[in-house]
Amino acid sequence: MKVVTTFREAREEARGRVVLVPTMGYFHEGHLRLMEKGRELGDTLMVSLFVNPLQFDDPADLARYPRDPDRDAGLAAEVGVDVLFVPPLEEMYPTEPFTRVVVSGLTETMEGVHRPGHFDGVATVVTKLLAGLRPHLAVFGRKDAQQLAVVKRLVVDLSIPVEIVGHPVVREPDGLALSSRNVFLGPDHRPTALELSRALMAAADLVEHGERRAAPIVAAARGAAPHLQFEYVELVDQDGLTRIERLDRPAFLAAAARVGPVRLIDALFFDLSPEGEPVPDRGVFLEAPSVLYREAG
Question: At residue 29, does pLDDT exceed 80?
Answer without folding.
Answer: yes
